[in-house]
Design a protein that fits this description.
The chain is of the alpha/beta class. The chain is 42% helix and 15% strand. The chain has 24 helices and 17 strands. It is globular. The model has no long low-confidence stretch (mean pLDDT 94). The structure holds one DNA strand of 29 nucleotides.
Length: 574
DNA sequence: GCCGTTTTCGGCCCGACTGTTTTCAGTCG
């Protein structure tokens, strides 16, 4: 049983307990544990083997025991039992907007309904309205919620969300009373996929902002409209929430609206311990008569009030950032401006759409000092991989261009196929002629874990392989990564000095944020590469930076923050 | 169910919007 499966069971337990109206804090404990397990870089099995389960924050004696039982018996007796009392269809109903645990409990108890389909039928037959708290409108909302549930894709890639958000922001910015506006929520935290899009606005006239927002051309439906908060569904089905506050609350509201929920709870708890109340309107010193506002316009007010420095949004997941803040050990996160070049792009020599010259000039426009052209190697025929002869020809073109440029260098590279047996597509003699070698797997995904792990490790042990591209091979929302022993790969990266790529292509974002700290501890270095197949895709670098920041990386962890001389020294090609 | 620089027991973030009510419960973020 792997991390995700165990996390899912705890999520289900939380859902069941909610329907049963159990202690909300007990429910919160299960959800927290589930989330923590989901985010763990190590296999929970290994942690269990080492007897360290209770060392994980949020996992105490009780849940640790349940994890042990799950690992040892693949089952959890307690779960099997409460599951019987609550049919699984009820859990699915919780996903219907406007249907929560109370409603589910009511329709199960009173109408013996156990599925979304059953609920739909009952609502259509108006069997619900007779119960207290229910009515015509509620029935309508449930039917609508069921329709939306069936239509909506779960989460969207970050770049899609960003386009939507920027578009809406540009329209809202035109409202004269808007003084400040910012993306918030998981998009601001740069999570790899986004559910709802959150936008915060400072304005003296919230009514005007709400009216403009709810009548934007892309709005399909108004879900809620109030003085400070409104929600809409836009075409494509996505939900967008905005909050409007006064400018002197913008900072604390931005902190609140950025989340994560777990981070906010921790921060507010610390506030209580310091005799403060922290909400979206400000930081308040608790007084006998009334509370005194001591901050609110700047986000840093929140952190300062509880004695810590500013924590960047990407770190706010309650994964240790609070402790690091209190102890003064927060990292100085990498920034996009730290990048000096891109070490994995394609040209029209293989499957890219632009010439080497065009890629180089686009890189210069973005302030880079170098770019590595890493066309595919010969066995990847579907992507027009280059053979040895073509490499020599391409080198001539690169030399010619390099003679032309000042303060910029094109590095000659390859995205090199790693065969199933770990052999490489080119011999060492050929690899020696290249500046950058990026090893990659594009075939044989279905091999078992040992095969995939050892093929990658073998490639890393080759002296000429500098970087491992998209190390786990996942495609977000489409394909899980290939089966590999990730801790072993991370360790080999540290041992051999082969950098791990953070592939910034929005569908990949691979290596994922949760592995970066662990890899860093093992001595690994990283390369943030776009894998661009056209000049516009060079802009994907920002998504790679988001991943790196979520993984607490600093600029010295990333080899393409080095100046060209240092980089070449580290690649062994100077 | 978790947790402890006041606690091993008694806390556990805080507020907005909707619908059904006539003061509030449920849902959501």
């Amino acid at each position: 049983m792997n991390n995700r499966e165990i996390a899912e069971i705890f999520h289900s337990i939380a859902d069941i307990l909610e329907i049963k109206s159990e202690n909300p804090f007990r429910i919160r404990a299960y959800r927290k544990a589930a989330q923590t397990i989901e985010d763990l870089p190590q296999s929970i099995k290994d942690i269990h083997t080492n007897g360290k389960l209770s060392d994980i924050p949020g996992i105490g004696e009780g849940i640790a025991g349940k994890i042990s039982e799950l690992i040892q018996t693949e089952k959890l007796k307690e779960y099997e039992e409460i599951r019987k009392s609550v049919p699984s269809g009820l859990l699915e109903m919780l996903n219907i907007s406007s249907v929560g645990p109370k409603t589910v409990a009511l329709i199960y108890k009173e109408l013996d309904i156990t599925s979304v389909e059953g609920l739909e039928k009952a609502v259509k037959d108006h069997k619900l309205a007779k119960f207290p708290g229910m009515g015509e409108k509620k029935e309508e909302n449930i039917l609508h919620g069921i329709k939306i549930l069936r239509e909506t894709k779960e989460r969207i890639p970050i770049y899609e969300a960003e386009v939507i958000a920027e578009n809406i922001i540009s329209l809202l910015r035109k409202v004269p009373t808007v003084q400040n506006i910012s993306i918030a929520g998981s998009l601001r935290r740069r999570r790899e996929t986004i559910g709802d899009i959150d936008i915060l606005i400072a304005s003296k006239n919230s009514e005007e902002v709400m009216n403009v927002f709810t009548t934007l051309p892309q709005v399909e439906e108004i879900l809620a409209k109030g003085n400070t908060r409104s929600s809409v569904r836009i075409d494509g089905g996505r939900q967008v929430d905005i909050r409007v506050v006064q400018e002197d609350s913008f900072g604390t509201a931005l902190h609140y609206f950025t989340g994560s929920k777990a981070h906010n709870i921790r921060i507010r708890e610390l506030g209580i311990k310091n005799n403060l109340k922290i909400n979206e309107y400000g930081v308040f010193k608790r007084g006998k008569e009334q509370d005194e506002k001591i901050g609110g316009s700047k986000e840093v007010d929140v952190f300062k009030s509880i004695g810590m420095p500013y924590i960047p949004p990407e770190m706010r997941e309650d994964r240790g950032e609070i402790e690091a803040g209190l102890s003064g050990t927060l990292p100085k996160l990498i920034k996009i401006d730290n990048l000096r070049g891109d070490l994995h792009v394609h040209s029209n020599w293989s499957d890219g759409t632009n010439s080497i010259e065009e890629m180089a000039e686009a890189a210069m426009e973005r302030g880079y000092r170098y770019i590595a052209i890493c066309d595919h190697s010969k066995s990847l025929k579907i992507a027009s991989g280059l053979d040895e002869k073509q490499l020599v020809e391409r080198q001539k073109e690169i030399n010619k261009l390099n003679n032309k440029y000042r303060n910029f260098q094109i590095l000659s590279g390859v995205e090199l196929e790693i065969h199933i047996n770990g052999e490489l597509d080119f011999s060492d003699d050929v690899l020696e002629t290249l500046d950058v070698v990026v090893g990659a797997i594009h075939t044989g995904f279905s091999q078992d874990e040992n095969v995939n792990t050892s093929r990658i490790i073998k490639a890393m042990e080759n002296n000429y392989v500098d970087i491992i591209a998209h190390p786990t091979g996942r495609l977000l929302g489409k394909r899980e990564g290939y089966k590999i022993d990730i801790p072993a790969i991370l360790k080999t990266a540290g041992d051999t000095g082969t950098a791990l790529e953070i592939n910034a292509f929005p569908e990949r974002l691979d290596l994922a944020d949760i592995y970066l700290q662990e890899a860093k501890e093992k001595g690994a270095k990283f390369a943030i590469n776009t894998d661009a197949h056209s000049i516009s895709q060079l802009d994907f670098a920002k998504f790679g930076i988001g991943v790196a920041r979520r993984g607490w990386l600093e600029k010295q962890d990333v080899i393409n923050c080095l100046d060209i001389d240092e980089l070449q020294k580290s690649l062994g090609t100077s």
